[in-house]
Amino acid sequence: MTTFLRDTATVFTREATPAVREPLGLLFAMGQPLLFLYLFGSLLDGAVGSSWQWFVPGILVMMCLSGPMAAGYLMLVELLGGSLERLTVTPLNRTAMLVGRTLKEMAVLLCQAVLIILLAIPLGFRLYPAGVLAGLAMLIVLGVGLGALSFVLAIKSVPSGTLFYVVTQMVMFPVLLLSGVLLPVESGPAWLRVVGQINPISYIVNAQRALFSGDLTNPSILYGTAATCLIAALGLWLGNRAMNRGI
Amino acid sequence: MIHARGLTRVFKLKKESVEAVRGIDLDVEAGQLVAFLGPNGAGKSTTLRMLTTLLPPTSGTATVAGRDIARDPAGVRARIGYVGQRHGAGENFRARDELVTQGRCYGLTPAAAGRRADELLDLLDLRPLAQRKPGTLSGGQRRRLDIALGLVHRPGLLFLDEPSTGLDPKSRADVWSHILRLREAYGTTLFLTTHYLEEADSMAERVVIIDNGEIIADGTAERLKNDLAGDRITITTTTEQEAAMAARIADGEAAVEATGGAAVGAAVEAAVEAKAEVQGTTVRLRVANAAAALPEYLRTLEAAGVKVATAETIRPTLDDVFLTLTGRSLTDDDLPA
Lengths: 247, 337
What we know:
The complex is a heterodimer. By secondary structure, chain A is mainly alpha-helical. Chain A contains eleven helices and no strands. Chain A has helices at 2-21, 24-29, 31-44, 51-80, 83-88, 94-120, 129-157, 162-178, 190-198, 200-212, 220-245. In chain A, helix 3 (31-44) runs antiparallel to helix 4 (51-80). Chain B folds into two domains: 2-226, Rossmann fold (3-Layer(aba) Sandwich); 230-315, Alpha-Beta Plaits. The longest helix of chain B is centred in the middle third of the chain and has 18 residues, at 169-186. By secondary structure, chain B is α/β, with parallel strands linked by helices. Chain B has helices at residues 44-51, 73-79, 95-105, 110-123, 139-151, 169-186, 197-203, 221-228, 240-250, 261-271, 290-303, 318-326, 330-333, and strands at 2-13, 16-28, 33-37, 59-64, 67-68, 80-83, 157-161, 189-194, 206-211, 214-219, 231-237, 277-279, 282-287, 308-314. Classes of the chains: A mainly alpha, B alpha/beta.
């Protein structure tokens, strides 16, 4: 166990060092969410009730989808290069390789989420501390699951990498749009609402909105938590299996 | 250091199964420098990947650095170094950071890993590049960094997969001088794959040739060349008739009339290992010892009235060895991957 923790720390430190050395990179990676926050947020003001309580959680979920995807991409680059192979010839624990990477993504996500929240407060976002903490915790669990799924996809995409690009392009954008992250799906046509109900991310978005509005007893939180745990369990199971099967 | 028995790997490609490595037996003693030579797709890298625990064998066993690759892969990993075909340092990371990470992977404390990283930067002349990312390094510098990464834990056995591929001649020489220095200083056992014939020839003490997943030759380059290829003699004559005559003499088909000529002719015939090839006015022979056979041959030809315009002897290369064994040339289909 101590070896596992040490190995996890080794991987986490390796992954986090470039971000610590160049913290501005983290800010640039937030360009899109920040633009959405300021642009769409202002546009939607008044259209969906208290727009900031509605919009900020959406942005956070969006980051929670794109962050792990980017992490998978970075892993794919390392798989196609030789650096991951190099690490797999060392005694480094395979599961620790996955966990360390995921933890780093979570740390980044947490920093970015806190920054978004802080920036949204002057715009009119009302802070419900208990809801926000619960919301962030849920996002981190979701990020762990999605990160692991993204790593599995990267592993399966070797040697060409095409699969990764195809799946992320084909799946991510529709999932994002149809989850009602940016625009309310409820006011759309019936088919859109049906699709939204199949999309597990919609439940998480709804749960996040309830939490960020301080509505802690809303039943949507239960569904959102269930969807999050499902994704996390699936991701960790597949991820661990893929790592131990050899890459 | 390495003891492999019946090592086999079958890949399933769609519904076909491809036998990449077919029952390899191999023993490498400590301190040896072994070059694993073969065309692309011969099974070099697959064998190396099995020995380094990257790929489980379909059947067969191997102990590497005293540990079984199937039962104790972690034990093998802790004792070997591996420099892969592709670059070991991640694009996103600074050279020294990667060396420190590598040390941590082998269980060094952060401080010890840092000291070891600095030692290696000095050892491989990488000190000025410590804070650079791999993308900004030259091919030779990157390769030195790869080698440094493989040496962090001072392994007694180092695997190198095509260490000099894609480098310019100067960088190749440079990488080699580092590899050889290392060996001299630490007595590291080196097992490397290469498709540069001259490299295997001049650097390795032992050459193992693999083709189609099987080991087809194993020995010192010198012995392989003497036993399996022999020297070549090439002569040119003034006319094609004379060339044909020279070939017949070499093959022992023509009688030599001059006094004593028959005896000499027989000596030449005995030395020749394969049928002489004629191409225009050029005749090529393969003999065991060209330096001894050529004067005899020239005397015989002179006695037979054949005018020889030029004569040269060529020492065989490992490619000739491969050609003798397989009927194919290594250089034909062996393009750098």
